[in-house]
Each structure stands twice: as structure tokens, then as C-alpha cells.
Specification:
The chain has 18 helices and 16 strands. By secondary structure, it is α/β, with parallel strands linked by helices. The chain has 3 domains: 84 residues, no CATH class; 209 residues, Thiamin diphosphate (ThDP)-binding fold, Pyr/PP domains (Rossmann fold, 3-Layer(aba) Sandwich); 129 residues, Rossmann fold (3-Layer(aba) Sandwich), CATH 3.40.50.920. Helix 7 runs parallel beside helix 13 and helix 14 packs across helix 18. It starts with a helix and ends with a helix. The relative contact order is 0.08.
Length: 501
């Protein structure tokens, strides 16, 4: 209902794009059938001749109100509505046909009757169809054919070579999977070694700001590994369309902090594609995202967490490895899965030595929803993931000096998460601390704490405690960053308080 001259700078979109080099621009009356036909043929020929893209700005009318709740009489003067009615393309084309003796009023009446009958028949068929069963409400949220939580995705590791960092493990997994599956395409900001292939022999290559895609372009070519514009919504939207057409996009959002322009594409298009199409379409895209802080200077635009927000996207799976081996196994599961996956990679963990591991082989997979018990204990359970796993282990070692035995459970995936493992350990320890890097308020730990309190209350001997970041952006100053993000001593304090309760 907003006029073009109000919502478009300069009042004319075709004027705004006229200076793009190689772009064919035509501005036409879109209600004129013959002008439209000629222009679209011209545009198609231009594009097919590989001269460049074409932009057709067709000025049309909106013959009716925007929706049943909208009454255009409230904001369109009578003269404007009458002028639009005179430009109605159906009326204009009918006038052309009758004027030139190509059709009669009786022909149009018969055509209208046929259309009305077809629409009424379709409506009656829809009304007669059985109503969906309430038990089918969860149908088509995820793939009915490929279950990444199943034993089919639990394969044995075959370690090879020296211990890898998480960067090396992810890079090797991408190389192996691209060799196995030719439908995989990798794109994002700076993921190629060089935007221009002729430069490759002259440079070492970039391969992402963290080097995780280094060498892929040289191995698999520009058609499968390429750079994108700095436009996160475009990256995810493009990947969604490619996945619908049966390609397997593995895209990168350069930093989690900049994923928000893509939120609508992720929430409304990607994650719901299967559900809203009744399983006719699917978009099993993998979105790799460096996440998190502990960078001592990353600041508010390179240190964000927020996995709980994406846990509210039905149809989207979320993996969050803390070790190199888990990164390889979970990424392979994400790629071979038939659902969209948000694959979170903690930047602070990329090149640590404590989470290194031998590459587990080209078929190693870890099922989603299967946590890893990093340390066993009998007195207090710490449920954690990401960068907080190592900090929880350090806190557990300190607690042992106080004769407090602490179990540390690494969830590894957020959606789904391993409730069975949590329940078994809560039943045994009766005391729980949940530690995550995201803010305490509305962090994913709140969901876990609520479920533990609701379903395992009789097994608890102490309140469930949560450890997380303050409700503040991550500051640039290292001392402030340390105060804002949860540290090992914060987890240790929660363990001691829980043990003493």
C-alpha cells in the first residue's frame, strides 16, 4: 500500500540501477501485453548471448486491495483508482482482441464461466478433503527418510596421521566430502583461495579468514568453490534455492555476529521449507559459522554467542563441537544429513592444542543428539558445550581438591540435545550446573534447567544453577571481556555452592 515514490529513492528503481556496467535496463508499461512480450524476449536474448544480466522494470497496477483486511479506498483517491482500472491489463487485452476481430463478448463470457467452474470445482474438492489429524502436527519438520540421530550415523573412527587442530580437521572433512559428493558447493565471503583463477599460481590463497576452506578451490574448481558478495541474506537465500534444486550447499557466514541479516531466510525459508511444502521440497543446507569470544579484543562485533535464538527455528538442526575429532564427525553428519544444519565453530577452539585429535577417517560420523561424557563424577554434573567444555574440565579438576567429584557432559549438539544422557547423570548426581558462553538470561541453559526441574525434580538435592555471560555486549577491553564472559572460576563457584547445598 506504500507508493513507489515514497519507498524508492528517486522514485524510480530503474534509474537507480541504470549505471551498472553490462546491465540491460528497460522501463516499460507492464500492463501492455505486446510491449511486455517484446521486452522480455529482448532481455532473454541478451542474457542467453552472455552479454550480461537484464533488468526489466515493468510498471503495473494492483487491481485489488492488498488483503481481505485491507481497504484501498482508505488511502487511494477515486481518481487514482479509476486511472488504474483503465490500465487493467485484462481489460486492455480483451479490448484489443475484440477490436481486431479475434474474439467476441460471448467468447469472454464462456471463458469466464470455464474459469469460475474450475475454481469452484477446486474449492469443493478442497472442502471435501479430510482435515489433517492433530497427530500429524510434527510431520515434515525433519526428513522422514534420513535420521541423523540414528545408528546409521554412528561410525567407527579410523585415526590417521598426526593430531589435527579443529581448523585442519574441518578442512580435511570438507575435502573428503567434496570428493565423495559432486553436488557439494562451497561459497561465502572470502572462502575461495582467489576470486580470479588466473591469480592462483601466484598466491598462497586465502580460503576464509580462518583458513578452513583453504585449498578447496584449487582441488574442485571455481564452479564449486567461490566467493560471494558481503550479503548474508543473499548467501543463505541463494543456498536455499540451490538445495531445492538438489545441490548440496555448504556455506560460510564469516562471523556469527553478522548472521542477523540472514535471519529471515533461515527462519522463514530454509528451516520451514520441508514443513510448509508437505515434504515436496527440502533445503538441506549446511551453514558454517565461527562463533564466540575469548579473543581478548574481539569486541561486540566479533565475539557474539546466541545459539538459543536459532533453537527456536523448527526444522533447523544445530551442532556445536568442542574438539577437532568431534568437528570432523559432526560436520560429516551435517553434510550427509537431509535437513538444514547450523554448524557452529568456536573461534577460540580453532587452533588450541588441548582439543587436537588424529583425523578420524573419511567416513567417521557422530550422531546428532549424542552427548560426550568428558569426565565422570558422582557429586555434581556440569552440562556444557563449546568453549565452556575446557573451562568446565578445569573447574572440575579444582573441585576435586575439595573432594567434590564432578561429571562434565559435552552436549555437542543443541538441536537435538541428549536428554537421556542428562537424565541419567542427574539421577545419579542429584546436583546440576549448566555452563554456557551465551548470556544467562534466555540462554539455552534456561531450557535445560526448566526441563530438569520439571521432569527430574524428585531426583534433585539442590537448585539447578546456571553459569553464563552477563547481559552486556562483549567489550573490547580484555579485562572487561573476562568479566563479561564466564570463566573457570565462575563454574567452580557454582560447583562448590551446588555441592554444599
Amino acid at each position: 500500500s506504500v507508493p513507489v515514490d515514497v519507498r524508492t529513492a528517486g522514485g524510480d528503481i530503474s534509474r537507480l540501477v541504470a549505471s551498472f556496467p553490462g546491465l540491460l535496463v528497460d522501463s516499460i508499461d507492464g500492463t501492455d501485453f505486446f510491449v511486455s512480450l517484446r521486452t522480455m524476449r529482448k532481455a532473454a536474448e541478451y542474457v542467453r548471448a552472455r552479454k550480461g544480466p537484464a533488468f526489466v522494470h515493468a510498471r503495473v497496477i494492483r487491481p485489488y486491495s492488498h488483503s481481505l483486511s485491507d481497504d484501498e479506498k482508505l488511502y487511494k483517491p477515486p481518481a487514482e483508482r479509476e486511472a488504474e482500472a483503465r490500465r487493467d491489463p485484462i481489460v486492455r487485452f480483451a479490448q484489443f482482441l475484440t477490436t481486431n476481430g479475434l474474439a467476441t463478448a460471448d467468447d469472454f463470457a464462456a471463458m469466464a464461466a470455464d474459469v469460475e467452474r474450475e475454481v469452484n470445482d477446486a474449492a469443493l474438492k478442497a472442502l471435501a478433503a479430510p482435515k489433517p489429524s492433530k497427530t500429524s502436527a510434527m510431520q515434515w519438520v525433519y526428513s522422514p527418510d534420513v535420521d541423523p540421530t540414528s545408528s546409521a550415523f554412528e561410525t567407527a573412527a579410523r585415526p590417521e596421521g598426526k593430531p589435527d587442530t579443529m581448523v585442519e580437521a574441518i578442512n580435511r572433512t570438507l575435502k573428503d566430502e567434496m570428493a565423495r559428493e559432486p553436488r557439494i558447493v562451497v561459497f561465502g565471503e572470502d572462502v575461495a583461495d582467489a576470486s580470479k583463477r588466473e591469480a592462483l599460481p601466484l598466491v598462497k590463497g586465502k580460503g576464509g579468514v580462518f583458513k578452513l576452506t583453504h585449498g578447496l578451490q584449487r582441488l574442485y574448481g571455481d564452479d564449486r568453490v567461490f566467493n560471494s558478495p558481503l550479503a548474508e541474506a543473499s548467501i543463505v537465500g541463494r543456498a536455499t534455492g540451490m538445495a531445492v534444486r538438489k545441490l548440496k550447499p555448504v556455506v560460510e557466514i564469516q562471523f556469527f555476529d553478522y548472521i542477523w541479516p540472514a535471519m529471515m531466510q533461515i527462519r522463514d525459508e530454509l528451516s520451514m521449507m520441508r514443513y510448509r511444502s508437505g515434504n515436496h521440497w527440502s533445503a538441506p543446507v549446511v551453514i558454517r559459522v565461527p562463533i564466540g569470544g575469548y579473543l581478548r579484543g574481539g569486541g561486540p562485533y566479533h565475539s557474539q554467542s546466541g545459539e538459543s535464538i536459532f533453537a527456536h527455528c523448527p526444522g533447523l538442526r544445530i551442532a556445536y563441537p568442542s574438539t577437532a575429532v568431534d568437528a570432523a564427525g559432526l560436520l560429516r553428519t551435517a553434510i550427509r544429513c537431509d535437513d538444514p544444519v547450523l554448524f557452529l565453530e568456536h573461534k577460540h577452539l580453532y587452533r588450541q592444542t588441548y582439543n587436537k585429535g588424529e583425523y578420524p577417517g573419511s567416513d567417521f560420523m557422530i550422531p546428532f543428539g549424542k552427548a560426550s561424557l568428558r569426565r565422570d563424577g558422582d557429586h555434581v554434573l556440569v552440562v556444557t558445550w563449546g568453549a565452556l567444555v575446557q573451562r568446565s574440565l578445569l573447574a572440575a579438576q579444582q573441585a576435586e581438591k575439595d573432594h567434590v567429584s564432578v561429571a562434565v557432559l559435552d552436549l555437542r549438539t543443541i538441536v537435538p540435545y541428549d536428554w537421556d544422557a542428562i537424565a541419567a547423570l542427574v539421577t545419579r548426581t542429584s546436583r546440576v550446573v549448566i555452563a554456557h558462553e551465551d548470556q544467562v538470561m534466555c540462554g539455552f541453559g534456561a531450557e535445560l534447567a526448566a526441563r530438569i526441574a520439571g521432569e527430574l525434580f524428585e531426583h534433585l538435592d539442590a537448585p539447578v544453577r546456571r553459569v553464563g555471560a552477563l547481559s552486556a555486549p562483549v567489550a573490547y577491553a580484555p579485562d572487561l571481556e573476562e568479566a563479561i564472559l564466564p570463566q573457570s572460576h565462575d563454574i567452580l563457584k557454582a560447583i562448590r555452592e551446588t555441592a554444599r547445598y
